[in-house]
Design a protein that fits this description.
The structure holds 2 protein chains of 2 kinds. By secondary structure, chain A is an alpha/beta fold. Chain A has 20 helices and 10 strands. The two termini of chain A are about 65 Å apart. Helix content of chain B is about 60%, strand content about 10%. Chain B folds into 2 domains: about 5-340, ABC transporter type 1, transmembrane domain (ABC transporter transmembrane region fold, Up-down Bundle); about 350-420 and about 550-600, Rossmann fold.
Chain lengths: ~600, ~600
Amino acid sequence: MKLKNKYNIFDSVKVPYECVPLWTLSRFLLLIIHRIEPILQVLATATFIDRALLFLVGETPFSDLVFPIVALATLLAMNRIYDAICSFLNCKIENAMRINFRAAIVEKRAALLYTYVEDTKTWDLVSRVSGAPEQNFLQGMSAVIGIIGIIIVSIGLLSILIAHVWWAAIIILIVSVPMVRIAIKSGTAQYQVNIELSKTTRKYEYFSSLLSGRESVNERTLFGFYNYLTPQWAKLYNDARKKFMQVEIQWAKKSKIGGTIMSLFVVLIAFAILQPVATGVITVGMYVALIQASTEMVQIMAGELPGSIIQYTKFMEYCKDISTFVNLNDNEEYLDLPDDTAMDFQTLEFRDVSFEYPGTGKMVLKGIDFTLTKGKHYSFVGINGAGKTTIIKLIMGLYSDYNGQILLNGEDIKLINQRKRKALVSALFQDFAQYPLTFQENVAIGDIIHIEDEHIESRVLNASKQIGLNQTINDLPEGISTPLGRFVHNGQDLSGGQWQRVAIARTILSPAPIHILDEPTSAADPIKESEIYQEFQEISRGWTTIFISHRLGSTKLADEILLINDGIVSEHGTHDELMKLGGVYCEMYESQRSWYQ
Amino acid sequence: MRTFKSKTNKGVTAIEAIVNSVIFGFKNHPFLLSVCAFTSMMHSVSYVMITLANRNLFDSISGLANGNEIITTIWAIIFMGASYVGCQLTSAVDTVFFMYIHRKVLGRLYEKFHDKSSRIAAIDFDYPSRLDLIEKAKNGISSTIDTSFSWLNIVSFFTSYFIAMSFVLHSISPVLLICIFIAFVPVIISQWLRLKIFVKLEDECAPIRRKMSHYENAICGKQYFKETRALGAFKFLNKLYIKTIQDLNEKQWSSEKKSNLLLLYSRLLTVIGYIAVIILLVFLLSTKEITIGGFAAVFSSLYVMFSMAEHFFGIELSLLAQNAAKAKNLFEFFRLEECIGNQGSYYNELGIELHNVYFTYPNAKKEALRGINLNIAPNEIVAIVGENGAGKSTLAKLIMGIYTPSEGMIKVGGMETKLTSPQYIYRHFSAVFQSFIRYQMTLSDNIIISDNDISQDSIDDNIMQAIKGADVNIQSNSFPSGLNTILSREFDGVDISGGEWQRVSIARGLYRTHDIIILDEPTASIDPLEEFRLYENFAHISKNKISIIVTHRLGAVKLADRIIVLDNGQIEEFGTHNELVNRGGLYSKMYNAQTKWYDTAKISE
């Protein structure tokens, strides 16, 4: 299903129609039937009462009453089962929307430019849009249906009134207009206030979690900040409470005043048509029916309309969000598999590359130059924030609006398609992904093209052996076919250290020529850290590797060290060369080493 | 004397939960709740008034057609208008009052919940079954309020409606009382069916829904985004995702069918009820038992009557049951033990003593700490090292008094942690926790939150000292508003780096007045050069205190007077750095594992 560039209120019906035309049409048919029912009921009641009165004085047989009774009963029955049938239809529509529309949103989201992911405002928008798209649309459709229904029944009831008391209908119409305007204004106002209030609500809920949640228990216990935070929570809660009340009271005043006025007009009508009844122009039955019709109109205007307006407003806001979302930049190539052909990698060069993260105004890379050659092991060191991770993101192609050039084998890397880019690099980040998949899949996903090959199992077992995961596999109830994580009821959780090894096994399986490891040992204790360094030396033969760490002991694994400082490569060379240089690297190394002397 | 034997409180029953909920409401806001009950009653009675008014009106209209006085009709119309207006107004007042009281009582209940959370033992948050109860209790807060209001509704709204309606029906014709009965029968039958056929109306859809959202996250969630893209895993994960949606759709449809068919049947039963009432009314009309007005009035109230019955039996009662089930958890939570003990006096020269301490987490199979014997002298710097999972953090919490030993004794400055009231112990400690909290508040709040007892005049000085000691640079661009910078994007503030956060948490620990300070992995996110500076600084400021540093970065332990090596819950070895290296045991092994990478004598291939 293709997403549109602009969405409006009619799309609350068009989109479901596109997904599942039959059920959407049925829903509308059902609506029309449901809203004609009150009109028919008024007529049936009138007929029944009139005939009953005649029957009571013996002027008609009982058989004459049968038809209106049956009609009334049928109409009542239809009214009562409307909800249940609606539910069925809504379910069908929601299901269809989920698999078509929601999946389309997920696909668009997965293809977005990476810049948006790290930009809070945009990502908030993306989250709002993707939260529950099918429910939002259903509510929008329900608003449209509600409003159309109100119009249908109003026209119907008004026609009955007009047929008998033409001027009364006009009065109701005149009164309805400001009523509707009030409903619309109140609806939008309440919607706005709710958004503002949600911020205050989030704040006091946050304080509540500090006062009673698990994460803060240690500090809460030792520091005893109960007396400090409680008044602040109370103030926020009471502020929010008072604001909510103001809104409620406003709302109640407006809607009930409207309702009261309309009730008084019913009284007016009741007076007005007394004369015709006295003179027999209008039958008793019709009088009763007309009063019924008028009070129903009051119900609808004062009761249902405001609710539909609020739903309508909410949906319009959602439409704005989703239109913005669809217009975000994306690239379908991001969804591709990596290239299958063996990558011929010789050199990767950064030539005078400058880069700033969008919207920060701060240059992270300032004309950086370096070259990576096939088969060598590199270590990027530097203090946090110097730009090491940024370089990795540029190599991976997550950002492409940089100055300068990145050359792969002498060719501008921007000319290379996404499939080849993916086949070039395998990266293991500190916040690596713990996929809701089996152990085998979690490892094999590193070589996604071959994830369903027949040899994949033995490759996974080999990699696991290399990185010391045998015991872990044996401890799992279904071995490598065990789902990891709590996404299914029989899933197993692994410890932080075990997950780290799974991630390393994942990169072992990858056929990419360049392997990047970003702070892979931060959570490990000394013995494990040392083991990982040792194993890594073994695994990485034949790879071109970049090892990022601020623990300089790991630089022993590298052929060449690049010290990234303030956006450029300030020092580079072998460990001995850099020590002889006596610069920043030397200072950092010595200060770390001094701990161990 | 506090104990950790999780007293299995004989649980709270649903009835007790309902009673407690109602009592809570009335104890705290008796007047408001009574007013609410009153307005509810008025609201429900207004519906009955409408029925009466309708009957009046229709009778006088048919009288008018037969030549009766017009004045009765005029009064009848006025009465009808008044009752409709009355209905509108009472419904508005009822709703507004309800909202007001609801939020007030809810706030009061939250206060009680926070208060209780601060009194129970910290360990209650650390083992699954108790943590489960606490989380369920929090979810039960709104259910408790809903329970008491459900109850209120049942008594003041529904009951008064049916009683009033009975009077009115009786006044029209005593036979009509059977209408009420007819209104109830279908609803009762369908509820019975619901219980019999779907004893456990399990939510089969929830697990599949969770699975779907996990896959969706893996495809395009923030934490997975760059890796999924780099691996080219979209198509593989999307296949799984779509399949899960198909499964969910099937499950939704089948569960919808079940519950809706049931609804359909019960509604059809009500229709039969309607028809029965109509036939009865016609019969009564034909035998002149009731007037046309009576007929019309009852007929037009049928919808409301049947709705009320359905609401009461079908919805309100089952809501009451559901909410009571959740409210139970809250009241069980309120019954948990609190930490109590004796007063205590601190004698600095006595230091810290641990005698044969054993500790097991509740419901755990293995002991976390075994046979710990340790004495820490005043002004000592002690380092506790060991592999992940050796028990270092647990030991730190025991020393602080956050946990108390299962067996054995811990004395802090002469006060025994098991017997002394906790605040006397905590008063002498400060800490920099490994998983410190990043408070979404100002920088100043983030520091002073650790100590409420410092006098207003000294606060600023103490903050400055803490900042200096922790090396937090408030002049830097990271803190655009200095101490008043809000440290959170959430509430219109800024983000700061991991290293800066760590320094803030160290400042927090230093700010608190203490005799003993515990640092649990305080430099994990800090660069080596800065780490070095920080520890040098620290050695300087911790001169007159006991410092306990928990770490597995062995470089830092050079500061310590003594090093304790934990392995598998026991003290494996202890001594000064040199003693331990020469001993050639576990410490020596760990040390060599780290140093060999800094050994410049070895040249890498």
